[in-house]
Every structure is written in C-alpha cells, then in structure tokens.
Fold this protein.
Amino acid sequence: MAVNATQLQKEVREIVTLLMKRPITEAIALDVETHAGFEHLEIEGGQWVGFDEDETMAGEEHGRIEFRLLLRLGNHVELHKLGNVYPGDTVFVLHGSPEDIQIKRRPDLAFVSRGRVKPTKGYIYAAPDIAVEIISPTERPTDIRQKLREYLDYGVQQVWQVFPESQEIQIHLPDGTARTYRAGEVIDGGDLLLGFQLDVATVFAE
C-alpha cells in the first residue's frame, strides 16, 4: 500500500506541475491529456478550464448521438470529397501557437472543407468550418454561450448545438442568426455541405 501511496503522490505532483506551467505549449497540453481524468480539459485565455465538468454525462445517449452524426456527416463528406470530418478527440486551437496556446477546444464533431484541410500529427491550428457541440443538462448557460461566441469569433461558419433533452438542433451563423430544427424537419447542408440532408428525428431515435 505504501508503494501505491508513493506512486499516487508522484502522479499528483506531476500533473499539478504540468497544470501550473505557463505558457501552455502543445507539448504540455499533450502531456496533460495522458493523465486519466484530465483528457477533457480545454483552454481559455491561456488558462485551463473544465475542471468541474461532469464527464459521466458523456454516456450512452451522448455516444449514440455523436456516432449517428459522425456516420451521416462522414459518409456524405467522404463520398463527395468535401473535406474531413473529425470526431470528438480532435483538438482545434482557435487562438495561439504551439508555443503559447490561448484557446483550445475539442468539439464533439467538426468539419473542415477540402480547401482548408492541412494534414498534421498534432493539434489543428485553425477553426473548423462546422463545430458540433452535444449539450448536456449539467452544462452552464454561461459556458455554452462562451464556446459559441469563441467559435463564431474565430471563423467557424456554423455552430451546431445539439440538445438531447428537447431533441432539437440549433444552428448558429456568424451574422448572429440562428435556426432551431426539431423532429419532422430536415437540415440542409447548404454551400458548406452540398447535397447533404439530415432528418433530425433520426439523430435522436432510440
């Protein structure tokens, strides 16, 4: 038991030391992500955020919805060679550099159009064209608004906010307008996703 306690103390010191380092570089952020329980942390204003998020909320329903969106968007984008669709473990740095990350986000789903795709083995230092966030009941309205504002301010063309409880999808645009889609309605991909059609009911069906 003493060995386990010593190892735990060492791991705690290590993660605390990492979290205190400034500026936050990509190397530091990647190191933090290797520690269990810290993978979900994001960065705002050069500071770590998300310590109080309830990771248990990303359960079966969240996973089911994320998979369906990934499947439908991914198949269409791949078939028509429109760009790349990225799952929720992909990091986008909206503001900053590998040596000083200021805003780091991990949308549940993201689309980057073909002309903007830049293959990399690390983080993506650009905003996606579409960012999808699946909203849990425990998320604070202030945090939801903050993410929305950041996405739009840094060049995201569409922000999809998916609400499992009400079974709605809100799509926000840079001009400040938004539209809510419900069961029985179809989302049209427009210029970003030519030919794409999404029946909202199929996203939430059990």
Observations:
- The helical segments are 2-20, 26-33, 60-79, 141-153, 200-204.
